[in-house]
Amino acid sequence: MTARHVLVLNCGSSSVKYQLLDMADHARLAVGLVERIGEAAPRLTHTPAGGARRERALAAPDHESALKALADELAADGLGFDSPHLAAVGHRVVHGGRAFTRPTVVDDAVLAEIERLVPVAPLHNPANLSGIRVARAMNPGLPQVAVFDTAFHTTMPEHAARYAIDVATADAHRIRRYGFHGTSHAYVSRRTAELLGKAPSEVNVIVLHLGNGASASAVAGGRCVETSMGLTPLEGLVMGTRSGDIDPGVVFHLSRVAGLSVDEADTLLNRRSGLVGLCGDNDMREIVRRMDEGDDAARLAFAIYTHRLRKYLGAYTAVLGHVDAVAFTAGVGENSAPVRRAAVAGLEVLGLAVDEELNVERASTARLISPQYARVAVAVVPTDEELEIATQTYALVTAANG
User: Fold this and answer.
1) Contact between 11 and 127 (Cβ < 8 Å)
2) How sure is the predictor about 24, in pLDDT bands with cuts at 50, 70 and 90?
3) What is the DSSP letter of 260?
4) pTM of this prediction?
5) In this prediction, what percent of the chain has a pLDDT beyond 90?
6) Which of 34, 40, 237, 337 has a CB 3.0–4.6 Å from the CB of 214, allowing a cystine?
7) Among the residues of 178-273, which ranges form H helices?
């Protein structure tokens, strides 16, 4: 009997999202979420394929108890960690630095290296490590595979990845552009090529991953050559609560004139900036509603957000030289027709346009929304990071098994 199931775990600081997939047909066998880990009233939501959604409160002071609870739910469906059908567990790991350029089977040395990267991803890597350690303990013989958010971006040339600061200082403290959302950018760029009827190696794609966190990438022939996020996920596009690109001198200025500490400046730029800092909302649906009602703060926030998108579209067109497609993905990218319309407005000189009827049409599948005459295809491609993690995990373990 061939084991063909992959469990995907995405461990956040206070949550665990999970999906169990059958790699024969990519069917979801179960999906679930444990939230508010270590907080008041943790809850688990679990939905098996073809079954009713189950919800329950649980005691989950840490990730170990959360993973044991989700394992119990899977076992109740005959899909537990000891199932003979389970080929591997694929873990989303946010930061792989320069060490990890591809999915990697976890051993003690890999765990130590992920831990060494905690200083550059203090909010994410510790939770990712917890998930890996608990899953290893639950079935020591089961392959655990780390799939890194940063891996897709390791193909960037050095002139794109380096910051123009003192080289010795940068190297000593691992300061460079790493980029994030890599599994999404990899999946969406490949799906966009399929939508065009071409191989990934034949197309140049700009991917706009627009969720509460947002990032852009320039993908040339299937390889990332530039991305907007940097050492941390703070750089680049305007986001729900993050500022995106900002003069570093703003931090020094606020320290001098407002007495802000480093931690206070960090909180300001990561949690109280972006859309929520501009207008008090980070839900694009609400911002569009307010804008349509004449709210000036919402209108300005929307204008700043989409202005930054146009800047990156222009810049990445210059980086690539030739663009075959622009792909919108993630919550805002997939669902906000006004954002897509505004992002390409005025960029006809670059070959970009959207067909308004196609743009406002609601659909759950990948589709083109550009008119037939446009030189550059504009696509809406729903992302599927869990499937991408599962695909990379399964390919690695089946190759290792011959």
Assistant:
1) yes
2) very high
3) -
4) 0.92
5) 82
6) 237
7) 182-195, 249-257, 262-271
Can you read off the two tokens belonging to residue 264?
């206070």
CB 387 within 8 A of CB 22: no
Query: Residue 170 is encoded by which pair of tokens?
Result: 């940068």
Q: Which of 25, 82, 108, 149 is catalytic?
A: 149
Is the pLDDT at 127 greater than 50, yes or no? yes
CA distance 122 to 243: 19
User: Could you confirm whether 247 is annotated as catalytic?
Assistant: no
Spatial distance between the Cα atoms of 42 and 66, rounded to a whole number of angstroms: 9
Q: Which of 389, 334, 333, 337 lies closest to 359, judged by CA?
A: 337
Name the residue with tokens 């009713």.
52
- Token pair belonging to 295: 């709210």
Terminal-to-terminal C-alpha distance of the chain? 15
Residue range 132-158, pLDDT digits in tens: 999 999 899 999 999 999 999 999 999
Give me 33's structure tokens: 């979420």
| CB burial readout 212-246, b (16+ within 10 A) else e | bbbbbbbbbebbbbbbbbbbbbbbbbbbbbbbbee
